[in-house]
Amino acid sequence: MNARLLPAALIVFGLIPLIANGLRRAAQATGAAGTAPGEGSGMSLPVLLHVIGATVFVVLGALQFSVRLRRRRPEWHRTAGRLAILAALLAVVSGIWLAFEARSSAGALLFTLRLLAASALALFVALGFRAIRHRRLPRHRAWMIRAYAIGLGAATQVFTLGFGQELFGRGELAVALLNGAGWAINLVVAEWAIRRAGHQVDRSATRATVVLR
């Protein structure tokens, strides 16, 4: 994909669950087929905090992938990065809050997976922040890509749940595994992107060495 289009594509992809949830709530509020009028029209505090944190992290995180923006406005990149980290931590805290609220209905496996995903997101942004404080740019980039992959989990889960439930049903185990698949797929893609970027840097360094010789 063209590097200029990548941030926009990530933002659109990341907003899919918010759009889907908004449409679902609109249908519930209007009493569409299969829903009760007004059902779920409200938004609890942890849900609101999670939506705010996840949205800010998805948008600002996507913009960090813009090489042109990083080079032309490095100060903006640093400020937006700090805000993205705070937004990620807000999403983590509110996500854990929601996980405990839904523990009884979600089941033990899904509850555990949600806690693991939230913990991984917090750990990855912490390691990414630590790396940039020590001027270790490749490590910083790698940890933040992994964190962003976790943050996009809800978007991938729209598809793993949407298609997977048609194949495997809506049982507790199936739902938990399909949610886990969303995070797992994103982490696999993240590792591929990190390795690909590393190979590109190695090739560039090799070409530069040949030229200097």
Count of helical segments? 10
Rg calculated over all Cα atoms? 19 Å
CATH topology: Four Helix Bundle (Hemerythrin (Met), subunit A)
Quickly give the structural class: mainly alpha
Principal-axis shape equals: globular
Structure summarized in a few sentences:
The chain has helices at 6-14, 16-30, 45-63, 67-72, 74-101, 103-106, 108-133, 137-151, 153-168, 172-212. The chain is mainly α. α7 (108-133) packs parallel to α10 (172-212), α8 (137-151) runs antiparallel to α10 (172-212) and α9 (153-168) packs across α10 (172-212).
How is this structure best described in words?
With 213 residues, the chain is mainly alpha-helical. It has a single domain, classed as Four Helix Bundle (Hemerythrin (Met), subunit A) (Up-down Bundle), CATH 1.20.120. Helix content is 84%, strand content 0%. It is built from ten helices and no strands. It has helices spanning 6-14, 16-30, 45-63, 67-72, 74-101, 103-106, 108-133, 137-151, 153-168, 172-212. The protein starts with 5 loop residues before the first helix and ends with a helix.
Topology overview:
Blueprint: H1 6-14, H2 16-30, H3 45-63, H4 67-72, H5 74-101, H6 103-106, H7 108-133, H8 137-151, H9 153-168, H10 172-212
Keywords:
single chain; 213 residues; mainly alpha; Four Helix Bundle (Hemerythrin (Met), subunit A)
